[in-house]
Request: fold
Amino acid sequence: MSKRTKELLRENNAWEKENLSAENQHLMTNIVTYIRSAAISEYEQELVRRDVMAMLAAGEREGRSAEEVIGDDAQAFCDEVIAALPPRPAGERALDALRTGLLAFVVLALCWSVFSAVDAIAEQHWPYFSLTVGDVISQALIFVTAFIIFRGISHHTFDDKLGKLFVLIFGVLAASILASIFLTQFLCNVHILVFAAVLVICFILYKLIDARVD
Reply:
């Protein structure tokens, strides 16, 4: 995220701890989780967070509950606030998706490389990693699972559908494990230096995009 967004995030984190009760901090956690999936920039999300915290803090000083301040339907309140803001431009949404994808790829590739390095050493073909069909499918399914977790928890913060979500997540992860075990068709060998170079390039691209996107 951009410098101004990081600064506002730090300010909001500190302000929340100092000015809100534990109950309202818990409510703010749910609100922030919900708005993270909204089609508005992270900077606007933090502006919304700041304004809602100020409303709740004022209510506390006046002896009013959160329900009296924002109503008894926090999700509907969030939807109204989000609807009043201009939607994020398509170009920014594309950059944000690319940023998230690059970071997820780097993290997953690093995790995969640890297990692949063990296999490579055991099978005496180091410094090459063997890439199989199952590896590709497995990592793709894990990527999908991470997306489901983020979007699902954000969308269902205020309802009771998380149980169904976790069943879906378990199913996708099970498919990932089965693909890795049974789909062992060889695709190619990847040299560790080439692999490392790709990760470095992806991480640099991630940081460059992250610095530009609010």
Notes: Residues 48 and 130 are 48 Å apart (CA to CA).
